[in-house]
Amino acid sequence: MTFAYPGGDAGPVTVSGPFGDFSIAVKRSSMSIQGEAGEALDGTAKVRVKLPSLAGLEACIEQTRDPASKPDDKDAFLNARDACLQKLAPAPGGADVVAGLRIGLLADKGDSSGEDGFVDLRLRYEGESRAPDGAMTVEPLPSQCLLEK
Fold first, then answer.
1. How do residues 99-139 score in pLDDT, each as one tens digit?
2. Exposed, middle or buried: residue 111 (CB in 10 Å: 0-12, 13-18, 19+)?
3. CB 108 within 8 A of CB 92
């Protein structure tokens, strides 16, 4: 996935990847992680992405999840959700979601560990869901992210 940000204290981050292309307006702020100073870009936006319909995803989860699991078993739900996201095709017109994004960048230039930032992207379907917390959320964990500035 690619995240492009033109810089400044506020502006759009353009996201490109397997869910399509969309923009999220973000604001820059200071942050600290375990004593390390850095900055974060935070924002949310309603967007249309390449995901299955909520109804289709929930039907698949019900068929896929372990029948012995309890209705409030989050692990069984998440395992079934992830399996269904792998096998279901996106809805023809896409799905409306609220995208939440946080990009954190650490300021320590002397750190060579390669862990100088993080991306937290969450795609929450609009509308009520049968998910344990009442909201269907997809949390992509891409193996490779690219931040362009």
1. 999 998 876 666 555 557 788 999 999 989 989 889 999 99
2. exposed
3. no
